[in-house]
UniProtKB/TrEMBL annotation:
Annotated PROSITE patterns: TGF_BETA_2
Region Disordered: start-end pairs: 1-44
Name of the protein: Neurturin
Any Pfam family matching the protein: TGF_beta
Family in the record: Belongs to the TGF-beta family. GDNF subfamily.
Domain TGF-beta family profile: residue ranges: 97-202
SUPFAM superfamilies reported in the protein's UniProt record: Cystine-knot cytokines
Organism: Oxyruncus cristatus (sharpbill)
Sequence ranges of Low complexity compositional bias: 9-33
Keywords of the record: Disulfide bond, Growth factor, Secreted, Signal
GO biological process: glial cell-derived neurotrophic factor receptor signaling pathway; nervous system development
């Protein structure tokens, strides 16, 4: 019925050959696409080393220490969320610590601020502004033997009920001239010892 010879070739009709042909066509088409970005082996090794370090660190902790660590992290997170922040760094930056240290150890000096009379909190209602001078800073260099002894007596609970200060405080040594102003009802007032003129550790 058929003229010519026909041979059965299992390779030509097998699914594996069709898959091979399709894979060859797909590989030729995929060679035209840009290669996908891959993470460098060095980054993977660094990431793995960090994970191993943290795992070894956690394994060295006891169960009680891990509980304390978790409770401290939860407390810091809740404080950050209550203050309106999104996150609180576990380890503050060294620069921020140095800035806070410098701010805490500024010497006692005179500063000034322009405020309204109503903002002074003395009970006067007035829109007039005055130059309010105040004392700010620390007095670490002015600590005397009295302050050290008083601090020791407080730590030994020899002085309990009395309200005492065991370190000198930055306070005005002299006050500026009297300040006069008109309130909202056009009444004239004069306030004495309002602004500092000289500051010192007392």
């Amino acid at each position: 019925m058929f003229s010519g010879s026909w041979e059965y070739s299992p390779l030509s009709s097998s699914p594996s050959s069709s898959r091979a042909s399709s894979s060859s066509s797909s590989s030729s088409s995929s060679s035209l696409l840009p290669p996908a970005p891959r993470r460098s082996p060095r980054a993977l090794q660094h990431h793995g080393s960090l994970l191993s370090q943290y795992s070894n660190l956690l394994e060295s902790y006891t169960e009680g220490e891990i509980r304390q660590l978790i409770s401290a992290l939860v407390e810091r997170y809740s404080q950050a969320m209550n203050s309106g922040g999104h996150e609180l760094p576990l380890f503050p930056r060294v620069g921020s610590r140095r800035k806070r240290a410098r701010a805490r150890h500024k010497p006692c000096e005179l500063r000034e601020l322009e405020v309204s009379v109503s903002e002074l909190g003395l009970g006067y209602e007035s829109d007039e502004t005055v130059l309010f001078r105040y004392c700010s800073g620390t007095c670490e260099a002015a600590v005397r033997s009295y302050d050290l002894s008083l601090k020791s007596m407080r730590s030994r609970r020899r002085i309990r009920k009395e309200k005492v200060r065991a370190r000198p405080c930055c306070r005005p040594l002299a006050y500026d001239d009297d300040v006069s102003f008109l309130d909202t009802y056009n009444r004239y007032y004069t306030v004495n010892e309002l602004s500092a003129k000289e500051c010192g550790c007392v």
